[in-house]
Amino acid sequence: MTKTSFRNMLHSSDIATIEIPIIQRDFAQGRQNIEVKRIRRSFLDVLKQALTGDEEISLDFVYGDTKDGRFIPLDGQQRLTSLYLLHWYLAVRCRVSDEQRDFIKRFTYHTRFSSRDFCAKLATISPVLDDRPISEWLQDQQWFAGSWRKDPTIQSMLVVLDDIRALFTEVGDEACRVAWDRLTSEANPSITFEILLLEEMGLTDELYIKMNSRGKPLTEFEHFKAQFEQVLKEFEEALPATVGQNGSYAEFTRKIDQDWADLIWPFRGAKDNADDEFLRLFRFITDITIWRHGLDARPVDEDLEATARAVYGGPETEVALTAQNCLFSVLDGLHAEFASATTMADIDTWFRTLFANDEHRAGSVTIFGDVNLLDDCCRSYGLSQGRNRAFSLPRTLLLHAVIEYIIADVRPSRDEIKVRMRCLRNVVFASQNEIRVEIFRALLDEVSAYIVNGDLAALKSFNRAQVEEEVSKASFLSVNRSIELGEAIYRLEDHDLLRGNLAMFDLNVDERVFIRRARAFDALFAGKTSYEEISQALLACGDYSQQIAGDRFQFGSPSLPSVWRDLFVARSRQGADNTKAALTKLLDAVHDEGIVDIEVALRKISEDYLREVAASKKYNWRYYMTKYPVMRSGKSGIFISSSYKMGFNLCMMEQTRLSSYYSDPYVRAVLELAGVPQDKYFSFWHYGYAGYEADNRWSLYSSNNRHFMRVTQEGFDIKSGRKSKIQAILDEHCADGSGRLNVRQSTIAGIVFDRKDRIVMAADLLREIIKGED
Q: pLDDT tens digit string along 376-387?
């Protein structure tokens, strides 16, 4: 075993070159993932400190073998390559002579020809170091081969060179010369390592390679743990004498391997390791601290070590002490709460006494997601799903509330915390627009205050209308004091389509009326009845649409629960009161018809309305949409009207965007009633919305894409396609010479009604046209 340096090793009598063997992997120190970045920055910073300070450092053992004057490292490749690049940079920066830097040429890679050639070329050049990154200058040179851009070792070297340059940018020329001298000193080099040859270890090449392949590098957690312990130690050592030692360093080193290790052990999963889970929990607690104390650090920063140093070891002593106390308090509180938990099932059980997943369970609060918020946090906090946080801000608030309950000096009773969690769930779910990172500090503080004192007034940054509703519901319950009423309200709140929001329900009614409406809603939306049938009966009870823009009207979707949820939780949309009135009428009608067979009840409600309209011969858009299911088949539930009101001029949107597919609901109804196979004769889908003009909404002949049919205020326009047979049929059905099939109409209070069912009229005509075509 020999202590040496990079320069002295290459000046020894028995080593002429250092050759990275073909069995080694590519140089990886320059990879751009988070963990390698962190390790690289830390390693290079240590090297710089050794060169610009007074202390020497040892890089531990470098294992290898010598063959014909070549030292072949089997462990130490990454360190040796970084030292090679550091020597090259300082040699160029200090403009040393070719003789002084000649030894650099004797480092090479045998893994790829491109890596070998790059090292050979790099060792001979002396570029002018200007403001540009070194990698940019090198890649601009004529001799830089295009194939080198695909060599991972070369690309990694370029990254490390840029980092070394950046590290020494603020170091003056004189100090750099001192660094070069310390680095290449024959007697007292500042950076050394121990060479350990295989024959000295009694190992063959084959046996060593097998042993080394089973070795594991330090995990991210192990690196973090060591670094954080150092942060706490340095912080304590720097504390003024008046403050004294707070013992956080000793406490952390003890608890991280005992109490907190026991806390996190059930989260280990199949991999039998909970290191990553602890780091995500640490990140969560740290981000909460950053938000609540307005610290100058960015939550969910990718560099956890730098963030931890800024938060827990920062220059402001009181702030750092507060942050440390928060961290220790939360971890200690969680450990105490789950001290008896030995498996994840034990922790699941604790959370299931408080929360339910996606359906109502008496005595719990449904949160529509994994109930074990702590486990979810440990698995996904800080990760992303596309553009979204895997652990969302609303779930962050809920877990924060749970932790505040656990660590509270005086806890609310179990029954009381369930009430508070329910109200908080309702408010959080109704505050999608209010929950933003910019005001997250206020949101966290308000949640803490509410969990401790139960005063809804504390939630002043959340959705105001929902907070007021919570007050109204509490008043409603306090006046009636009915267990049955409470269960009815809680069951509604836990419904997936409402999620705590009862904007569609009147709280100023007799409790028996409310209970029966709640039961009708639960039966109606239990998942056994199709949205199509519900929409039909709801339309029969009234125009329940909401105007989401001047020209757009939102109805329920035949397949998307999210559309119905948006309808039911709306308060500020124009038409929300109409939705409430129609739904209330439907719920009362369903109760009157009986909730034993919902489908029969809905059919009866729809048929009664249709008979009433037919008897009065007043056919308007609501009648047509109620009678003909295909007119409600657009998946988005959105209708667009150029007249800015529902009527006969409508586009039914399949998706929400105007550039998606759409169709004319009246033409669709005619084609379906006539029994025309979809798209066999006529094309009725349109794509890429071009405007409201009826000219752009013709349904076409499939055979030649010529205009066939379009709806008008008075009826339909139908083109004969210059076919005499079709023109004769149009004449028989009293269409005028231009193919206009008009319906007799009347206007009452400014509303136009058809006196005959236009869909039936046009379908009869279309059947004859198709018969003639066949």
A: 999 999 998 888
